[in-house]
UniProtKB/TrEMBL annotation:
SMART domains cross-referenced by the UniProt entry: MAM
Gene: Malrd1_3
GO cellular component labels: membrane
The protein, known as: MALR1 protein
Source organism of this protein record: Pandion haliaetus (Osprey)
Domain MAM positions: 9-138
Amino acid sequence: CFNSGSSCEKCDFETDLCKALRELNLQPGWIRRNGRSGMGPPYSDHNANDSAYFLSLSSKMRSSSATLRTNVFLPNDEEHVCQITFHYWISQMSGTLMVGLQKHSEDTITNIWQVSGELQNQWKANTITINSTEKYEV
């Protein structure tokens, strides 16, 4: 759910990429699949629905990285903070999942959250809060 103030946009992968992610920006390595795909765990989404779609890293990508970028978000003001809640599943000890923030005046991506080194094999949820006075991508 991408929340800015009272409006909340739910983001799923049932028909394609969701609106918040850049279209055609699915980098090599990301696969849109569901639990019935025969590709191993997870066998359902975070609601235990085996036909619901999610994004997964291909097994060919075990030793490299792949990025997902959002569309451009507009600046926040004092009343509106952006909150992004996402569900994730880590099935490799060596994997690291990172969330970065790139403000439009900066070339660099600032790491704002990460998790690694835990073999969890279960869905977890995390919410990040972003406050930016300029346009940005996540």
